[in-house]
Amino acid sequence: MDWVPIVFIVFKVAVFGTGMFFAIKWHYDQGKKAKNEASRSPIPTERTPGASE
Fold first, then answer.
1. pLDDT band at 53; cut points 50, 70, 90
2. Rounded to an integer, what distance in angstroms lies between the CA atom of residue 33 and that of residue 53?
3. For the CA atoms of the chain, what is the radius of gyration?
4. 30: buried, middle or exposed (CB in 10 Å: 19+, 13-18, 0-12)?
């Protein structure tokens, strides 16, 4: 019965590690996607001084 906590801890670390990996990957991909869409936008993001509106 001494092996039960070891198995549960290993399982918990594996599940949380996998979840953290996919959470970080998802956020990284969302940031990259937003940056990509912003660069393809025809509207300029920066305004030049003295430009007419």
1. low
2. 29
3. 23
4. exposed
Is 0.70 topped by the overall pTM? Answer: no
Q: 21-41 pLDDT, tens per residue?
A: 999 999 999 999 999 888 886
Residues for the chain: how many in total? 53
CB 38 within 8 A of CB 45: yes
Give the span between the Cα atoms of 21 and 39, in whole angstroms: 27
